[in-house]
Amino acid sequence: MAVDQQLNIELGKQGVFVTTIQELYNWGRRSSVWPMQFGLACCAIEMIATTMARYDLARFGAEVFRPSPRQADLMIISGTVTKKMAPQVVRLYNQMAEPRYVIAMGACAISGGPFKQGYNVLKGIDRYIPVDVHIPGCPPRPEALIQAFMTLQKKIDGQHLTGEGRPRHLDAQAQGEFPVPEQGAHDLEPTSNKGVWPVPITIR
Amino acid sequence: MKTVEEIKAAIEAAVPGATVELILNPGPAAEHSLLLGHAGAVPVATFLRDDPALQFDFLSNVSGVDWLDKEMTEKVKVTKPVTKLVDGPEGKIEQTVEETVEETRKRVEPGYLESVYHLYSIALRHGPLVLRMRTANRIDQVAMPSLTPVWRSAEFQEREVFDLYGIVYAGHPDLRRILMWDEFKDHPMRRDYVEPDDFEYEPTAHDAVLKRAHEHKDRDQEVVKGQ
Question: Nearest residue of B to residue A127 by CA position?
Answer without folding.
Answer: B200
